[in-house]
Specification:
Blueprint lengths: L1 H16 L3 E13 L9 E12 L4 E12 L3 E11 L5 E4 L2 E13 L3 E12 L5 E9 L9 E9 L1
Antiparallel strand pairs: 1-2, 1-9, 2-3, 3-4, 4-6, 5-6, 6-7, 7-8, 8-9
Protein name: Outer membrane protein beta-barrel domain-containing protein
Keywords: Signal
């Protein structure tokens, strides 16, 4: 009975995930505010390259690589999730809807960094989207902690 239940659960989840969309996500973030305590090792900007899988329930999962650009170069693996509004929050023009979203993620840099994020996604065409957002880095290390980053991204 357990094998039958597990097989049914697997088939249902596989069919639900097939309705989603997979897209490339490239983002650039710049530090808008950082603490003054440790000026020799601050993060100035990051570049992220990820793959994003959007589920039909307005939730997306993404994962990829993060490159920290600053006094010291670093690379890491990052994962995160976003929850989008079900209907567009604004309509800029007749054909440019804008959704709001909240998300959270983790980057495995020299020290683990957790971050909440909030932003807007603009539908520029049927196949591409532009993201404008803000992240707040939280970490046990002063190098990353309490950094507020403002970013823009392209999904295609």
């Amino acid at each position: 009975m357990r094998k039958l239940l597990l097989a049914t659960l697997f088939l249902v989840s596989a069919s639900a995930s097939a309705e989603g969309q997979i897209a490339s996500l490239v983002t650039f973030e710049s530090t808008a505010l950082r603490p003054d305590s440790n000026e020799s090792e601050n993060v100035t900007s990051t570049l992220n390259t990820s793959m994003e899988f959007t589920l039909p329930s307005n939730v997306s999962l993404y994962g990829g690589f993060t490159f920290v650009l600053g006094e010291n170069f670093e690379s890491a693996i990052s994962f995160g999730s976003r929850y989008y509004s079900s209907t567009p929050a604004f309509q800029l023009f007749a054909s440019v809807p804008m959704w709001s979203y909240l998300g959270a993620g983790v980057s495995f840099l020299d020290e683990t960094v957790y971050y909440p994020e909030a932003g807007f996604r603009l539908a520029t065409s049927n196949t591409s989207r532009i993201d404008v957002y803000m992240k707040i880095f939280n970490s046990s290390h002063d190098r990353y902690d309490k950094h507020i980053l403002v970013g823009a991204g392209l999904t295609f």
